[in-house]
Amino acid sequence: MPVILEALGLVFQPSVLLVILASAAFGMFVGSIPGLTATMATALLVPITFFMDPVPAIAAIVTATAMAIFAGDIPGALLRMPGTPASAAYVEDAYAMTRKGRAEEALGAALVFSAIGGIFGTIVLMTASPILAEVALKFSSFEYFWLVVLGLSCAVFVSPGKVSRGLISLLIGLFAATVGIDNPAGEPRYTFGNVELLAGVQFIPAMIGLFAVSEVLRAVVSRSNKSFKGGGDRSGIFRNQWRNLRRYPVQVLRGSALGTAIGALPGAGADIAAWISYAVSKRFSRQKEKFGTGHVEGLVEAGASNNGAVSGAWIPALVFGIPGDSITAIVIGVLYIKGINPGPMVFINDPQLIYAVFVVFLLANIIMLPLGWVAIKAAGTMLSVPRNVLMPIILLFCIVGSFAINNTVFGVVLMLIFGVLGFLMDENDIPIAPAILGLVLGPMLEQNFITSMIKADGSFAAFFERPIAAGLGLFTIAIWSIPLIAWAIRRAKR
Amino acid sequence: MLRRHFLATGAMLVSAGMLAATSVAAQDYPERPIQMIVPWGAGGGTDAVGRVFAALLQDDLGVPVNVVNRTGGSGVVGHSAIANAEPDGYTIGIMTIEIDMMHWQGLTDLTYEDYDILALVNADPGGLMVSSDSEYQDTAALLEAIKAEPKGTFKASGTGQGGIWHLGLAGWLMAEGLDPDHVTWVPSEGAAPGITDMVAGGVDMVPSSLAEGRSMIEADRVTPLASMSDERQDAFPDVPTIEEATGTDYTHAVWRSVAAPDGLPDDVKARLEAAIKAAYESDEYQTFMKDRGFGLRWAGAEEATEIIAADDASLGKVMKEAGLAAE
Hints:
The structure holds two protein chains of two kinds.
Chain A: H1 2-11, H2 14-32, H3 38-49, H4 54-71, H5 73-79, H6 85-88, H7 91-99, H8 103-137, H9 141-158, H10 163-177, H11 195-198, H12 203-222, H13 241-247, H14 249-263, H15 270-283, H16 296-312, H17 314-320, H18 326-337, H19 344-349, H20 351-380, H21 387-404, H22 409-427, H23 433-455, H24 467-493
Helix pairs in contact in A: 1-20, 2-4, 2-20, 3-4, 3-18, 4-18, 4-20, 5-7, 5-8, 7-8, 8-14, 8-16, 8-17, 8-20, 9-10, 9-15, 9-23, 9-24, 10-23, 12-21, 12-22, 14-15, 14-16, 15-16, 21-22
Chain B: H1 2-17, H2 22-27, E1 34-38, H3 45-61, E2 65-69, H4 76-83, E3 91-96, E4 115-125, E5 127-131, H5 139-148, E6 155-157, H6 164-175, E7 184-186, H7 191-199, E8 205-206, H8 214-218, E9 222-227, H9 242-246, E10 253-261, H10 266-281, H11 283-292, E11 296-300, H12 301-321
Parallel strand pairs in B: 1-2, 1-3, 6-7
Antiparallel strand pairs in B: 3-10, 4-10, 4-11, 5-8, 5-9
Helix pairs in contact in B: 3-10, 3-11
């Protein structure tokens, strides 16, 4: 108990609270600009944290990232421009709600359930870190291979429309992911001697192109000048969330728990978590047909899941110093600089610091609610702009965003190419989301498959030799084969 | 492209008109923000070094120094961006050991000769680590087992195929009289995933720098067997060098340097070198590197160029023998 009081004493100081507030505003700002990521926000903060005490330094980073990740949902819902691949899982639902004049409710759901997921993850982090980290350490490339396949399968099965169209989209994404030299063999593929292509297809410009530019193109074609707002958005940010919470308690809990667990695996992370949660949500929903048409249920579960995963990523980071994503990688560096060496000893040597970090986590997720409200209100005014004015502005954001990610005009070129591709896919009823996941997870799929094969000297059986791998493998195969068998049986009866 | 043309034309007009004033202008250096290119992603070790340097140089030079991550293509993209910039002192970058490797792989024509190397600011020796569950808890036992078993029995990881730690291991095996590919290399996206995989039982050893395994060593999950350096490392005084462990004189290290495109004006170069030396010697940099577990190593422009040239030759040799160089 005295340790917790000491931790509270470290956090509740005017200077620390001021740092939290300032970095929250900073994170909110960076995250809501498409193309600027939470990782970028963290990296920009690092030089500033050198001059701070350990607790405010960590507080600044924790708060800014939590805000930036939520804020990434804002352009996703309003402009169909998801800030992260994780928010791409539910961008169709959120954007459809915006078009129905329920933008505030969609963003409110993202906000409230992000906060709930984040708090759930933090509680797990406080209570079960050492045990979960042990489990995470058992994951090798065999297990990650199946997990990636599972994530990709989910993307295909949840996409609206026919499974075959989802598969086409996924394959487009996987193909784009093969470009470049960052593959296990280190061989340049489809680069045509171009230095920029060696880096492969960067997913942020591709994602902005596929979702946002295609939407701009569609607006040009449809020539409608009405603003989205129409009769005014009366859905309210917080008004319906209590009802959503009461209607979907299982979904919230399931999303948070699954997200935290997947986030704790250093090779997985928030992207896979959000997609698997969205798929689980659809699979067990009583209103499957509404998914993708502006239904809040998937948004609730996947939103909770992706913030749960962000907290979960800290589990291996604090217990073993293993980064779960690029943000925790930066944080581990900062921890070392501040003399807090991550590892089992940190819980014994500096418990008050670790508890202070936990307190900051909780605080960050709570402060997110009022700040998020302000950000949503401010961003919402954008929707009353007529479309013929709004669309060029969106295009401008797209260009800035895809340039900023790597400071190169090539990003803009990529974005435009993928914009046209996205438009063509939309016109032919091919869902876009699976392509994004294919692009993000393609390199992981290949990496884990090749390294597993090298380790196993080319034997496929190795994918089923380790118990966790065998379980995940059989589960994945079942997901694919059960619908086929059911179809065959139905056909035979007829 | 259009913009570059425009700039080039503008620069030509200006320089033609103010030829006499050039020396005065150079004395005023720097008069606008400087761009610091980091060829690796935000959050990595090179990025951290770049950002510390940027902050320190900014104080010294009195203009903003902005870090720009130009990632991808195994470092080719960022290194090209440094080399292709105007040599006016307004673009500098962190150059890493990959510059001595990628031209052998046939990925680019760029070599260290395309840069004005300003200083070497860090070096980390390679190491040798196994899981604490491994049956081989010292280098001699591990080496004996590697020699006794057929090629491909043991697996190692820690970078991509042909990456720096792969070459460190291949070079060590060659120094011990084995084939460079006697231990199979399992490509990974870096040392951390390699170490995690080793602890999960996926591979047998990781030859990355010991600093990269520090938290797992302290958690008793990883045993550090040896350091590929001349002397034991301050941070790991109990870990013997390869020479102490097996009697073979073998060292391998990665370094980071600050470089600019080739052809800097002399006075600009002198100003930058002085600023970099001051930054290196600052308390902030020294404590930062020690706390992160990074090795401190200083070499001025000339010595740094010699070190980088020597590494270029030796890495080329290992890569050719290991079949990792382009034909």
